[in-house]
Amino acid sequence: MPGVRRLPRILIYAVLIALSLFYLIPVYVMMVTSFKGMEEATLDRMWELPSSFHLESYAIAYEKLAPHLLNSIYLTIPATLLTAFLGSLNGYVLSKWRFRGANTVFTLLLFGMFIPYQSILIPLIQFMQSIGLYNSIPGLILIHVVYGIPIATLIFRNFYAGIPMEILEAAKIDGCGMMGIYRRIILPLSLSGFVVVAIWEFTQVWNEFLFAVTMTTSTQQPVMVALQNLSGSQIVQWNVQMAGALLAALPTLLVYIFLGRYFIRGLLAGSLKG
Amino acid sequence: MRQKEQWLAFLLVLPSFLAVAIFVYGFIGWTGAVSFTEWNTLVPNWSWAGLKNYLYLFNDLRFQADLRNTLVFTVFFILLSAGLGLLLAVLLDRRIRAEGWFRNIFIFPMALSFIVTGVVWQWIFNPSTGINLLLKEWGLERLPQWYVDTRVIPGVEWGQISFGIPLALIAVVIAAVWQLSGFAMAMYLAGLRAIPEEIREAARVDGANEWQVFRKVILPQLRPITLSVIIILGHISLKIFDLIYAMTGPGAMFVTDMPGVYMFETTFRGNHYAQGAAIAVIMLILVCALIIPYLWSNLRRGVE
After folding, report:
1. DSSP secondary-structure letter at B257?
2. What gap in Å lies between CA A53 and CA B225, rounded to an integer?
3. Looking at the complex, does the CB of residue B9 fall below 8 Å from at least one CB of chain A?
4. Which pLDDT tens digit goes with each residue over B221-246?
5. What is the spatial distance between Cα B141 and Cα B135, in angstroms, rounded to a whole number?
6. Which residues of chain B fall short of a pLDDT of 70?
7. Which residues of A touch B4 (CB under 8 A)?
8. What is the pLDDT of residues B255-272, one digit of tens each?
9. Measured over all CA atoms, what is the biggest interatomic distance in chain B, rounded to whole angstroms?
10. How many CB pairs under 8 A join A and B?
11. Which domain holds residue B79?
12. What is the 3-state secondary structure (H, E, C) of A75-117?
């Protein structure tokens, strides 16, 4: 643009490329190390490319993590679906049918998304033990659904705020009730809202560690706990650790690669005001 | 709304509301109660201990180190993440080529678990490998000890600990910034894109140069974004647990310990339930100091 002094383009690209390289360091280390053979994965050759392509570290890591990957799948999918459904219902009511005190209810719900979970952990364990769900995947599902309600409600409430009231008024005149409008008008319009919430919840639950490590033992453990055990163990070689880290990260990475646009929307929606 | 609809609407959110009432508010109350008891053994002991657990913590070397570390970590983590995020957003907002690629590279760490991050960065900052191999090759003689460094700079005696910046935290801050600066970037980029181009043009017509446009026009517009970024990153930082647990553990002299790690270890490894509850209550109070003004102002705005 004439007359306007701007940063030289070349400098912008140089900075962006340099920073990109910094962001990719861990990916490089993970990839390079995980494809090395046992004798090559030594500490002093960390940055070198593998001289030949090996998959044995993946085989070992997979053997150790496979049952826990399965646990994580059984945990994440129902938890995500239930949270999204409840969030949608709450968001609909709290944005379109604001009963007296609705804002207060919403704020009280919202608080739950910020608390450090350490502050509810001791009673939670006692409670789960007393209802017989301690150390079980259904128990973890219940926990993730309850503590996922606040953010799912927030995202859906913001999402539905964009649907004009006139549509609802028209449906009311046609004789639709609160639930009729939800089923016939709101739900069909909610697809991208569900995608955003589902991706967000999926990532959160898959990556979560504190509940997983305190609520489950051995065979019930989700993959992140198993990965932490793998890396904490002295006898596991570090190329296996890297392969394990990549395996455990793969589902959320794939979701990010293919549906990144929605992931970022969830990221922003979860932080902007209601 | 008619009376009947009011009730129906309330009934629909009631299950969620009750669940949160019990699992959040009820359990917080319960934890608070535990923190005032003598329950520091495996078997619950509900006899009243008053402030004993809190007094113990505030005189405890480890907890004092935790408070120091939380303060240092939070400040550096927020400053660096927000600063780097703003820089990246400003650069990406310059209509550059391959913007989508760059954006994806800066945000993808957000999709990873802190455990994965911790496992990988632990090796990168391991003093006998990783970054230090490169530094050695470049001729550096006194290699940094990263997260095993026990020095605290400047190290003023304060209570049981020396107060200052524990050098071991640098490595942890870098890993955390790597993971979450993309969030700040996404927030700032959305903010920048929402500022109409006419405002910038108007300032330029008035003779402002690019730097002045940024300082006087853009930055003030981004203030609400900065507030959100500080609150989100701040509350993550105050309750951080997984990253430390996977990457460094408490460290020698507790140089990388955090309240979240102490709470976990003392409660579930040491069976000091009442002490763990007291740590949890203090963590909650710290987070509340950050969150409640924010929620309150949102509520007020919602009512208007």
Report:
1. -
2. 46
3. yes
4. 999 899 999 999 999 999 999 999 99
5. 8
6. 302-304
7. none
8. 999 999 999 999 999 999
9. 78
10. 274
11. 68-270
12. HHHHHHHHHHHHHHHHHHHHHHCCCCCHHHHHHHHHHCCCCCC
* pTM of the predicted protein model: 0.93
A4, A106, A116 member nearest B238 (Cβ)? A116
Q: How many folded domains does chain B comprise?
A: 1
CB contact under 8 A, B8 and A9: no
Asked if A10 reaches chain B (Cβ–Cβ under 8 Å), the answer is no
Domains and CATH numbers, chain A: 58-269 (1.10.3720.10)
CATH number at residue B255: 1.10.3720.10
Residues of chain A with Cβ-Cβ distance to B143 below 8 Å are none
Intervals of chain A under pLDDT 70 = 1-7, 270-274
Whole-number pLDDT of residue A175: 86
Q: What is the pLDDT of residue A272?
A: 53
Distances in Å between the Cα of A271 and the Cα atoms of B191, B223, B229, B294 are 13, 15, 8, 11
ipTM value greater than 0.95: no
- Say which of A29, A43, A264 has its CB closest to residue B186: A264
Cβ–Cβ of A123/B31 closer than 8 Å? yes
**Residues in A 65-104 with any Cβ partner in B closer than 8 A:** 86, 89-90, 93-94, 97-104
